[in-house]
């Protein structure tokens, strides 16, 4: 229907944060019973809720694939429950879906209609959020991701070290809720249906090694429907993420429909 | 309060348009649908004016009503003679889109329209000519007389909006010319007694009386500033709306 910049107060975070929604606009007359599938799309460390909208052709893809795209703002949280800050994973999984269902009822809340993806810190974030709640999302698309728990903790007094402490606390985070591997194992143990995972990284990405560690983990855990794509010649850049979001959408079994929506 | 700054496409206008939407949080979790107030801006203003220049949000929060603020550009809320069909857009397409997108009640009783200045003229016109869609139509300090309204617009623009005929009495732009008005429509007019439009409002209130149409005419004290005037009008109206809805609900029981 629209591009909406939604400003709302979060009880979980205790503050007001914006969320953007791209809702493919149906041609009139409307089918009042039709629900929209939802792609939750997370920004990276230098982005905010407007990043995907400004830096990619996301609205065009939303219309082509007939899917609502929700880009929440996550500040510098990596969308985890911060040790010294907001509980962004809780906000993403417990508060936001409930709130949005109330104010935009055409959004589907069925697991099979909900997908989550993200880039860089949001790539980690979508694994963090998606694996902690396998009951909410049918698929995860992680681009230039990496598991934050694979990065050794070093407190050298730098801004970077301070940033890590703020989000993940002091010390190693292996085996905690910030650890993708821990969450992935917990999800298996829960016996719940597991999300399909699409993981991609450019061969020139500075953090390629971290992505390979994630790949090796899932390669050892065949219970996951996991695909890894290493894109040769690509770095940590928007041309790569733009290509990968389309690859991810193509995996989702969405019917391309150029007759129902305005804008094509 | 949820504030939704929205861009969408109007098929009626055949172009993208913006709107501002406010949804009070008090409804969340109740499963109830929002009553919706369509708030129209004056010419020269835009869809953000109500948000920026009044205390709209606090009034809505107190009385739990959703507000939809569309842009009407320089249309005078008309299906223009040489231009786009803004009246159809505002009175038909906009509610259809908003009711598809947001949890708004689709009952006529829960759809209300109001405006200030020309926005009020537009709202009254919706109450007159689209009375099946709105249960309450309200104007704040609005001009009423169509010939006077057109006379204040540059001749060329006036022809594009209202057509070339200098006498618009009896035309579809004339608030006096409407027929087949839903008998349960409630018209609400307010005007400062010192306003240049006071006499027009007074005559119109008498006309509504003669037509046996339900109406309220509020004589306002003049404020020093038009924005303060607009804000007080809005506050009074939203409060009136809340009381009115309570009364109507009691009567229905």
UniProtKB/TrEMBL annotation, chain A:
<dbReference type="InterPro" id="IPR050583">
    <property type="entry name" value="Mycobacterial_A85_antigen"/>
</dbReference>
<protein>
    <submittedName>
        <fullName>Transcriptional antiterminator</fullName>
    </submittedName>
</protein>
<dbReference type="InterPro" id="IPR000801">
    <property type="entry name" value="Esterase-like"/>
</dbReference>
<dbReference type="InterPro" id="IPR029058">
    <property type="entry name" value="AB_hydrolase_fold"/>
</dbReference>
<dbReference type="GO" id="GO:0016747">
    <property type="term" value="F:acyltransferase activity, transferring groups other than amino-acyl groups"/>
</dbReference>
<dbReference type="Pfam" id="PF00756">
    <property type="entry name" value="Esterase"/>
</dbReference>
Automatic annotation (TrEMBL), chain B:
<dbReference type="InterPro" id="IPR000801">
    <property type="entry name" value="Esterase-like"/>
</dbReference>
<protein>
    <submittedName>
        <fullName>Esterase family protein</fullName>
    </submittedName>
</protein>
<dbReference type="InterPro" id="IPR050583">
    <property type="entry name" value="Mycobacterial_A85_antigen"/>
</dbReference>
<dbReference type="GO" id="GO:0016747">
    <property type="term" value="F:acyltransferase activity, transferring groups other than amino-acyl groups"/>
</dbReference>
<dbReference type="Pfam" id="PF00756">
    <property type="entry name" value="Esterase"/>
</dbReference>
<dbReference type="InterPro" id="IPR029058">
    <property type="entry name" value="AB_hydrolase_fold"/>
</dbReference>
């Amino acid at each position: 229907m629209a591009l909406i910049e939604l400003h709302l107060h979060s009880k979980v975070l205790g503050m007001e944060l914006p969320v953007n929604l791209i809702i493919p606009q149906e041609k009139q007359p409307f089918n009042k019973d039709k629900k929209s599938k939802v792609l939750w799309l997370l920004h990276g460390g230098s982005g905010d809720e407007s990043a995907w909208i400004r830096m990619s052709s996301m609205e065009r893809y939303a219309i082509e694939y007939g899917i609502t795209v929700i880009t929440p703002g996550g500040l510098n949280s990596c969308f985890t429950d911060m040790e010294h800050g907001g509980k962004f994973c809780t906000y993403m999984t417990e508060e936001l879906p409930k709130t949005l269902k109330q104010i935009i009822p055409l959004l589907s809340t069925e697991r099979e209609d909900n997908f989550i993806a993200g880039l860089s810190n949001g790539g980690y974030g979508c694994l963090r959020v998606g694996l902690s709640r396998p009951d909410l999302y049918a698929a995860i698309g992680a681009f230039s991701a990496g598991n934050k728990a694979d990065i050794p903790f070093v407190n050298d007094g730098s801004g970077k070290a301070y940033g890590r402490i703020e989000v993940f606390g002091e010390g190693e985070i292996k085996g905690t809720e910030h650890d993708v591997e821990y969450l992935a194992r917990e999800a298996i143990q829960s016996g719940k249906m597991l999300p399909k995972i699409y993981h991609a990284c450019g061969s020139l990405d500075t953090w390629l090694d971290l992505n390979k560690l994630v790949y090796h983990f899932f390669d050892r855990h065949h219970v996951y429907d996991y695909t890894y794509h290493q894109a040769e010649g690509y770095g940590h850049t928007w041309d790569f993420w733009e290509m990968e979001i389309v690859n991810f959408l193509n995996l989702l079994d969405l019917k391309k429909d150029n007759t129902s929506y305005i804008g094509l | 309060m949820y504030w939704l700054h929205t861009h969408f496409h109007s098929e009626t206008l055949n172009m993208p348009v913006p709107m501002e939407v406010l949804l009070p949080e008090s409804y969340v979790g109740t499963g109830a649908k929002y009553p919706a107030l369509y708030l129209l801006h004056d010419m020269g203003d835009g869809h953000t004016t109500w948000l920026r220049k009044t205390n709209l949000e606090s009034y809505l929060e107190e009385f739990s009503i959703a507000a939809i603020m569309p842009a009407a550009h320089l249309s005078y809320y008309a299906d223009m003679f040489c231009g786009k069909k803004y009246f159809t857009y505002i009175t038909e397409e906009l509610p259809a889109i908003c009711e598809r997108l947001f949890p708004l009640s689709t009952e006529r009783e829960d759809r209300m329209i109001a405006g200030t200045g020309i926005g009020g003229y537009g709202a009254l016109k919706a109450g007159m000519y689209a009375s099946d869609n709105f249960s309450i139509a309200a104007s704040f300090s609005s001009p009423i007389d169509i010939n006077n309204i057109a006379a204040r617009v540059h001749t060329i623009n006036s022809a594009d909006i209202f057509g070339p005929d200098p006498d618009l009495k009896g035309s579809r732009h004339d608030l006096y010319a409407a027929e087949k008005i839903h008998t349960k429509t409630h018209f609400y007019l307010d005007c400062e007694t010192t306003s240049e439009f006071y006499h027009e409002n007074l005559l119109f209130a008498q006309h509504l009386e003669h037509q046996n149409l339900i109406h309220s005419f509020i004589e306002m004290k003049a404020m020093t500033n038009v924005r303060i005037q607009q804000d007080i009008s809005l506050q009074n109206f939203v409060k009136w709306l809340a009381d009115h809805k309570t009364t109507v609900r009691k009567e229905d029981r």
